[in-house]
Amino acid sequence: MMPLDLQLSKALAQVENDLDAHVCEVQRFVRQPSVSATGEGIPEMADIVRSKIQSLGADCELVSTGRHPIVYGRLDAGAERTVVFYELYDVQPATESGWVVPPFSGEVVELPDRGRCIVGRGTFNSKGCLAGFLNCLDAIRASGSRPPVNVIFIVEGEEEIGSPSLPGFVRDRREELQKADCVFQPYFGENAAGTTILYLGFKGMVCLELTCTGGEWGGPVTRDIHAMHAAWIANPAWRLVQALATMQSSGDAAETTTVAGLARGVRPPTPEEKMLLDALTTSFDERVILEEQGNARCFKWSELEGVDLLEKYLYEPSLNLNGIAAGYTGAGAVIPREARARLDIRLVPDMEPDEVIESVRSHLKANDYGDIRVDVLQSYPPSQGSVSQGPVDALVRSAKDYAPGPVQVWPRSAGAAPHYVFTRQLGIPLAFGGLGHGGRSHSANEYITVEGLRRHERGIIGFLYALASMSQKE
Amino acid sequence: MMPLDLQLSKALAQVENDLDAHVCEVQRFVRQPSVSATGEGIPEMADIVRSKIQSLGADCELVSTGRHPIVYGRLDAGAERTVVFYELYDVQPATESGWVVPPFSGEVVELPDRGRCIVGRGTFNSKGCLAGFLNCLDAIRASGSRPPVNVIFIVEGEEEIGSPSLPGFVRDRREELQKADCVFQPYFGENAAGTTILYLGFKGMVCLELTCTGGEWGGPVTRDIHAMHAAWIANPAWRLVQALATMQSSGDAAETTTVAGLARGVRPPTPEEKMLLDALTTSFDERVILEEQGNARCFKWSELEGVDLLEKYLYEPSLNLNGIAAGYTGAGAVIPREARARLDIRLVPDMEPDEVIESVRSHLKANDYGDIRVDVLQSYPPSQGSVSQGPVDALVRSAKDYAPGPVQVWPRSAGAAPHYVFTRQLGIPLAFGGLGHGGRSHSANEYITVEGLRRHERGIIGFLYALASMSQKE
Questions:
Q1: pTM of the full predicted structure?
Q2: pLDDT grade, residue A474 (50/70/90)?
Q3: 3-state secondary structure labels for all residues of A161-175
Q4: A chain contacts of residue B321, beta-carbon cutoff 8 Å
């Protein structure tokens, strides 16, 4: 067997050589619509992925779920290390206007300030990552090697509709999966300025719907009624507004929750995380993010800036009012029968979803709003990795080795993701992220750059060999 | 000239004789659609009304406004008294489903528990009243008399779109109009239980839209942004909720406004009004109204009952939250850029709309919500009549004389109406109401009963002769 470093350099050379074919492979994946919300093209796409994985010499099957099958495969390379490759083959619908090419054409187009790009629904999220990873295994084979790690493939088709089947699927296969060294989910992690950002964790989420309906306490019981009765009949919209107002501090200050126990478990940065934050001192500039968000404004407390602000952003839970609706804001004068609000709570370690939900329920009861119904729409805990985990360290090191620009390691993302499915259910590390640039997820003209695909694949190969070289089984 | 009491009995006999023709006249009015919101049939209807008034021997013209003409006429009967007859010839659209006959057919149909009814858009609101009054003048002529009072006709075609032209029209003709003894607006005032209710006043209204948008204070500035930013970017929906919560007392208690000065001017019942309320002690039952409102519930303070509750209903201002809307209550996790709420404030005497609006603005400023925009959508003061006004007394007496069932005189209605246009701009009494039963205004199968039309017309004739018999010019 060739030494690993020779295998690595041959595989990298193969990627350079095969780049045009690899672009075609991404296009082939993109040209097959696979819209999980409607089911369009799902069976065909599942089949494409299964065949592709089998063509790499792996066993692969489609596992039925309630809706869309999971492509489940295993490539035994006789290696010491095993990685669980997780990705998705489904995409969001592409009904937005403004596409410069048809959304499922996957054409290569020159985009302003971006150079040559593959444009299409799913290029960035996440068929570029999916095809890119499989391209890498192809390249390793073409360069005469077996992969340096064994691979278990889990490619689901329900990610864009909330991954309802994934937790059960993983739980049912815990015994096998937890023997793996890590889960790997690649990502085009380079921003438009050329900086690659790696996140070691993600927030959790609790999404609640609060419904206040007329009933024993007062108000309309069977239908909206005329506003002329407001002098003597109670209004569920007022009641919901008043209940909500008790849940968050008011005025210009920060939106700090006043729900007792909601923030239970919030922990400050660990020494490692503090070090990672400190390392961002010279490079983190909140103005870049705020500008990307349409010049949005922070709270008035935001005399905080730089890494101090970033720490608040990443380490404090948030209780967002996603929406509220009742009665009419157009014509019509009513006491509405029902008022609804949707709350989106982002959980940081070590908050627990069940405790969060219970704290909201207790808060309402304690404030005499026990009649307001609380429905849980979504709920999962945060996940947090560490560079002390070998595979995470391997990902960070390979990113630094292969990225042409700066690499930032954030202790976590401000976004939420249900990575607990792996980190908590299996108790193994998750290596998330990678090189290359793409963007406009869920929007018109979603894209990855052709150069980004090249970097992305180089980064994956670098990571797989770094993983194989890890000094000992951890 | 015949003595008035002989004229009266001949006119009443003529109504009995001509009832079939009078029903046909209501049908003719209903069969001409006249939808002010769309303009459908408006010129044709204005012409029908003008011709009909001219056929009574009156001068009549169409006065142009911004949208739909006002039919303006004058019937000089050489009488001592003059009444301004106010009605509308426009109707709401009839797009609801569930009509048992086409909405503009005006067919006579047997309705359950109601007997023979004229069914159609505008029968109850208000072509039955309009045609009914003109039928009465027809009957008086046919019975050989001149009307016992002079009549000035003001029939507008914009009532269902908020009467935008009426205040200016009346103001411009103040000199002539204020010489009249009263304004008369007939109404089918008998409820389903056979009780006729007369209201001596109506509440005023201030309708406000509050808009909170991201800006200097914080929040999204150009568009909705992703909920993941809630930990550091402010949310206009939270801010609006918190601002609203400061405007009304919270918890299970009454919705009592906490806006300083909003209720300025509210006065208790006068001795006359107190007497009228007392007279309702044995007959008023709030359960009848609440049942009609789908069994709606009062506030928890409602250990009040009967007339004590009625007094609260009629004499306290209300601050209703007609509606609130922001973000998503379906899918989507956002910090919305904008949140809107619509407030409907019902004014009782002697509240002033401008003071109410100013108190809301001051309240927001004082609570540091000066950035929340307040748009005034509608605004008019309350109006209050008294049985000490001769024409009002004449209406009450004639109702009691001609109603086969009980007559209740409420000091005012809980509803709002811009009667200030007459009572305040002209300073003359308004006689509002009448006999006969109808219902389902703005709903499918709007109707008046045929027997109700008979009673309605008898009541009008009784009122006109009572007015003519008033002892002296007041």
A1: 0.89
A2: very low
A3: HCCCCHHHHHHHCHH
A4: 235, 237-238, 241, 326-327
